[in-house]
Amino acid sequence: MTATITVLGGAEEIGANCCVVDLDGTAVMVDAGLHPKRRDAGAFPDMQSLGDKQCDVLVVTHAHTDHMGGVPFVLRKMPWMRPLMTHATRDLSQITLHNTGKLLRKEHPEILSAEVEEFYRGATIDHLRMAFEAVPYNEVRSVRGYNGRSDVDLTLHWSGHILGSAGVRLECQGRSVMLTGDVNFTDQASIRGAQLPRTHADVLVMECTNGAATDLHDRHTEEQRLARFITQVSSAGGSVLVPVFALGKTQEILTILHSLMRKGSIPHMPIYTAGMGVRISKVYDHYCYTEPVRHAGFEISDIPQERINPDELEREKFFSNPSLVVVSSGMLNQPTLSWRLAMMFARRPTFGIAIVGYQDVDSPGYALQNSAPGEKFVFGNKLLRRSCALESYRFTAHARPEELVAYVDDVKPSTLVLVHGSTEACDAIALDVLDRHPGMRVIVPRQGASYTLW
Ligand SMILES: [Zn+2]
Ligand SMILES: [Zn+2]
């Protein structure tokens, strides 16, 4: 029996994440993302590297765009693939895929030929979704591809990253491949840490987002810092803007703010929300009894929230009363609500902006995060001078480097494949692992190259 892996996206970067694991003739594609930045041919998984190879099954680990945004694209190329994912991911896909389509149409990138545009039309996405098959956690599905010589047993395991997120275990003729997907081993405010199997796998394919991170504080410390900032700004009469990703970070920050208010760590004040984050919170609420959430039955909608009217921002009450404003996008991309509000908040000396997530170096959020008070900087396509207060926090939904290495210790794979991280992050984990397991085969794959697993 032979086994290979081909990485079609997410090699030494967080890109259009996608890999194909071939086990004895059955080809399982795991994830099909849209690259967060590229809008040329590299925006989608590199299907050309597959040559004539056909895939049989598509497993989507979770609904973030860098894992799911390329699903319409790959399904158009291989419409016979059987798409599998958890129930929550299927529900979330309704919101995220339509949003991806809207985004691509608005951006008019060069890849958006008439053909590709058709993949992302609302009606096409609705049709695709009817083919999505929901698989419960920890339940084995046997699949066998067109050229498969034996069954592949496939199981999804809770990966603690966002609602619906899963790691995938594949077993074939007594050998196994474990793919972590995006994984987080410690509890977050809203959801519990991963419950991935810690038993031996022959091959482990692991994400490395935080592989090189040295400045990760624990969540409690970050919460206390955030509470101090909010208290300071609001006691001077200002409001605080918290730019967040709609899926995952919105629900996490709302839960944190609510609990800080209940504990008396910050004063009671209105919380403003809007748009896609609100729709996603409703899906979280739907699963508040069945998924590994921190507090069963707790609904994000139970947190009192005021809705923002994006057409009349100047008239919003948070400009006159201390409030918290939690809106996307997380990296303050132009012309999202967070970007528009940051333009208005930045000019008010008593106001504050709390950056709570990763900022890509090319994003307006990064420019804002590194701006000096009183000095002009380029924010999107506008010049801005920041007078408001600004602080940065790291609330990560990815595993810490030491947790990743500890997971490798438990799984003891013969081959470790490192993906979904910068070259620096993958190398840092590779070196750490090789220190502890000198005989282990560690691969930092190149995009498009195939590696024999056994
Ligand atoms: Zn993710
Ligand atoms: Zn990711």
Describe the structure.
The chain is built from twelve helices and 22 strands. The protein has 454 residues and is α/β, with parallel strands linked by helices. The chain folds into two domains: 3-213 and 397-452, Metallo-beta-lactamase, Chain A, CATH 3.60.15; 219-392, Rossmann fold (3-Layer(aba) Sandwich), CATH 3.40.50. Strands 6-5-4-3-2-1-22 form a seven-stranded mixed sheet. Helix 12 (423-436) links the parallel strand 20 and strand 21 (441-443). It is globular, with a radius of gyration of 22 Å. The N and C termini lie close together (8 Å). The site of one zinc ion (ZN) has 4 residues, from loops.
Q: Strand order within the widest sheet? A: 6-5-4-3-2-1-22
The pLDDT mean sits at 96
Main pleated-sheet profile:
7 strands, mixed
What is the overall number of helices?
12
Number of E-type strands: 22
Outline: globular
Segments where pLDDT lies below 50 for 5+ residues?
A: none
Distance between the termini: 8 Å
Structural class, by secondary structure, is: alpha/beta
Bound molecules: zinc ion
> What count of domains describes the coordinates?
2
User: What name goes with the CATH superfamily of the largest domain?
Assistant: Ribonuclease Z/Hydroxyacylglutathione hydrolase-like
* Overall radius of gyration: 22 Å
Q: Briefly note the CATH topology name of the largest domain.
A: Metallo-beta-lactamase, Chain A
CATH class of the largest domain: Alpha Beta
What is the name of the CATH architecture of the largest domain? 4-Layer Sandwich
DSSP helix fraction: 25-40%
Percentage of residues in DSSP E strands: 15-25%
